Amino acid sequence: MRTARVPAARGPASGRPASRRPATQIGAQAGRARRENRSGWLLVSPSLAVVALVVLLPFALVVVFGFSEIRLVDIPFLGTEPIEWSLDNFERAMASQAFWGALWTTVLYAGLTAAGSLAVGLVLALALRRPFRGRGLVRALLLVPYVLPVVAAATLWKTMLNPQYGVVNAFGRAYLGWDTPVGFLSTTSAEVWGIPVPVALLVVVLFDIWKSAPLAFLFLTARLQAVPGEIEEAAALDGAGRRQTLRYILLPQLRAVALLLLLLRFIWSFQSFDDVYLLTEGAGSTQVMAIKVYTELVTKADIGSAAAFGLLMSLILGVLLVGYVLLSRRTEDS
Amino acid sequence: MTGVRPTRAARAGRAVVVALALLWSLGPVAYGVVLSMRPYTEVTRDPLGLPTSLDLSAFATAMRDEADGGFGLARFVLNSLGVAVGTVVVSIVVCVLGAYAAARLRYRGRAVTNGIILAVYLFPGIVLAVPKFVILSRLGLTSSLVGLLIVYVAATVPVALYMMRNFFLALPASVEEAAIMDGCTLGQLLTRVVLPIAVPGVVATAIYVFMIAWNEYFYALLFLVQHRDLWTAPLGIAQLGDFQVPVTVLLAGSIAVTVPVVIIFFLAQRYIVSGLVQGAER
Fold first, then answer.
1. What is the pLDDT, as a whole number, of residue B128?
2. Which residues on A lie below 8 Å from B262 (Cβ)?
3. A83 versus B131: which is more confidently predicted?
4. How far apart are CA A322 and CA A320, in angstroms?
């Protein structure tokens, strides 16, 4: 999406056709192209080195680890002993109930978060679309949850929801007639009007929406500002009401960016560790895949198994990323 | 009725939405601020009460060293500051060069390198946590702030490249063309022509990188959990939450580490936002 936007002829020589120049200048230009080639590589090589060392090399290693029996105690001997290749890590993962459970939890968590943060972002963007006094300040204040360090945000939420002194339980017991405090972050499921509700998971989703909706709001606002005012005026002249303008003019304009936001948030939430771990440490059936990778590595000290979990995750994410690229190509063309 | 102009009902509806949105965004933060100023015993006795007097002792307790009966947050903050500033310096130097090349220079293989950078920007980071942990502990760097710095540079280079390239693309190319015509070398071009006009973009990117490093929790947990003297501020607050630390002190600590990032973010807000959402306007 971004790469394709670079204008091809943004170099120093743009806009001057070579054919109209004397021969000496053409020679000078060839020299300059060579120089530009050299400086380009010179400038980009530190970035490439970082990428190669900390992305490509680790990725190669995670594949090796996934297919071998290796544990934390083996680290000092890495590179001195031959690798024992095996498929065991993958077979064990695929056969375990925990893997499929974690996958389902993760999909639910990421899906609900993506939909929720888009919906909240959309409401905010539409509500703040027209100028009013103090709009700049409101806009800035709405970004606070996004800027907050995740640890601070989780501390706030954990305190609010605490069964003993949290404001939510205190309020519920004082005014809503709750008999016992609700353990929001440890309850797997509770019946609300006869419907089972996954309490802890929903709280984590809500938390993530709270933190990520401001970004969706920013993207949607940027897109809304680019909608030419004449379209709306023309629609109004044709007798379109507010609701019709929204339905037929604004929302179609937002479709592409909304789809991208949905996909990006799903990808980011799919691998999110901090939010869930800080709030519940995986309690209350909130064991997402990222927590699974962490416990395999740290608690079970099994590098191979953690790598296999990670690789299976990235396989799923890879499919989504291909979807993202195809999607952004299409938006690019239209 | 013109349709474009909002009716009175629409305006009232908007006021309600805006009020609710502010409550939703700031409510938890305001609650935390209020609680951090109340004595702990009062909070447990009357959770819904308001502070009767201004009590800032929780902040002091959080910051003081363990030897003085505090929780050592001041040291955690210094650790965080060191790692974050180091990350900003390395990441920005690397990315200014790379992003300029990606935005302006035509070199062979440019499409491929740009593609790699985009792929890395979108690459799921959690997958790489395992091998990064293994490599760095093989090198003996997992129990040091240097190991953390390396990981943070890796995590911020893709997004910094992406943001900075957007800033460079938005600058007029004509000044650079004139400078090249005048025989400027590449080094002169960058330091005397490009960087001076790109300062807002560089500062915005630096702040964003700083925020990522300052807020990061996962790698700090993975690398340093057993080395209390090296804890970063987020790790310290999260770990203390597992001990018997009064919640008022935890909240005071959370607010203390939040205030600086919120302030610097808002100072550069306009530039950061434009760098992030570039491309969404289409």
1. 85
2. 144, 147-148
3. B131
4. 5
Q: Using a pLDDT cut of 90, give the percent of chain B over it.
A: 12
What's the pLDDT score for residue B45? 73
Closest CA of chain A from B60, distance in Å: 17
On the question of pLDDT at B87 being above 80, the answer is: yes
Point out the residue among A6, A54, A293 whose CB comes nearest to the CB of B130: A293
The mean pLDDT of A10-32, rounded to a whole number, is: 55
β-bridge mates for residue A195, sequence order: A192
Reported as a pLDDT band with limits 50, 70 and 90, residue A225 is confident
- Distance from C-alpha of B255 to C-alpha of B252, rounded to nearest angstrom: 5
Note whether A39 contacts B273, CB cutoff 8 Å: no
**Residue A60 in tokens:** 């190669």
pLDDT tens digits, A264-280: 889 888 888 888 998 88
Region of poorest pLDDT, from A289-298, A316-325, B133-142: A316-325
Nearest to A159 among B17, B110, B251 (CB): B251
Contact criterion met (CB below 8 Å) for B31 and B38: no
Give the nearest chain A residue to B160 (CA atoms): A47
Residue range(s) occupied by CATH 1.10.3720.10 in chain B: 71-277
User: How far does the CA of residue A30 sit from the closest CA of chain B (Å)?
Assistant: 12
Residue B122: per-residue pLDDT = 67
Smallest CA–CA separation between B219 and chain A, in Å?
10
Q: State the Cα–Cα distance between residues A207 and A200, nearest whole angstrom.
A: 11
Residue A44 to residue B113, Cβ atoms within 8 A: yes
For B71-277, which CATH superfamily applies?
MetI-like (1.10.3720.10)
Enumerate the residues of chain B whose CB falls inside 8 A of the CB of residue A248: none
**Residues of B with Cβ-Cβ distance to A14 under 8 angstroms:** 173
- B48, B169, B265 ranked by CB distance to A170: nearest: B48
List, for residues B35-82, the tens digit of each pLDDT value: 877 777 777 777 777 777 777 777 777 777 777 667 778 888 899 999
In angstroms, the CA B75 to CA B240 distance is: 14
Spacing of C-alpha B8 from chain mean position: 40
CA A83 to chain B, closest CA, distance in angstroms equals: 15
Closest Cβ–Cβ partner in A3, A245, A317 for B114: A3
Q: Where are the alpha helices (DSSP H) in chain A?
A: 23-51, 57-66, 88-95, 97-127, 135-142, 144-147, 150-160, 167-175, 199-225, 229-237, 242-244, 251-270, 274-280, 289-298, 303-333
Question: CB atoms < 10 A from the CB of B253, how many?
Answer: 29
Q: Which of B134, B157, B280 sits opposite A61 (nearest CB)?
A: B134
Predicted-complex ipTM score: 0.84
